[in-house]
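Input sequence (222 aa), recorded before submission:
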Amino acid sequence: MNLALFDLDNTLLAGDSDVEWPRFLIGKGLLDAEYYHRENDRFYQQYRDGTLDIDAFLDFQLKPLADRDRDELDALHAEYLDVHIKPIITRLGRERVAAHQAQGDLVVIVTATNRFITEPIARELGVEHLIATELEQGADGRFTGRPSGTPSFKDGKITRLDEWLAARGSRLDAFDSSWFYSDSRNDIPLMSRVSHPVAVDPDEFLRAHAEAHDWPVISLRD
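Predicted structure, token format:
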């Protein structure tokens, strides 16, 4: 069995689910528009620049989850998935996932975005296995607004993947071939660990890095 890893945002999606979630909540009148638009744009630019403080971002991004009970959040997510996410799932992304599955590869989405947002998206894509930033929950089942464990970001993606594979009794070098598809400079650490890194509609920094290291550069946009 071979291993196929996929980033989610701006790779399988023609957009960013972490950006779309607060936009959705703003549209519902549930967040202060001026503040969240400004901070959302600021953190996203930091992410694009490779300077994101993941702890500060998670404090910002997870607070709306802590303010609502799980039933309300799940109902909101169902609408968010239909309105904001399904339209930006790329046809070619679906086809690339399906091609790896048809070959019998172990397919995993590895994303810095939290599990609450991404788990239903992974299901929509037909991907069983998801490595995402985990969320702390209280005894009542509500989210606390804090992450749990290592965020799945930059080198943290390597840590979380190694932990996930170890729990399955495996390791990355046990696979004959491994792929990681990503758009972002932030994923260069994990891309450098697989046998087949693939830059997908990459940012300028990743494109230059990929070209310098003879990594394939592809587009999954229609």
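Checked by second reader. The chain has a mean pLDDT of 96.
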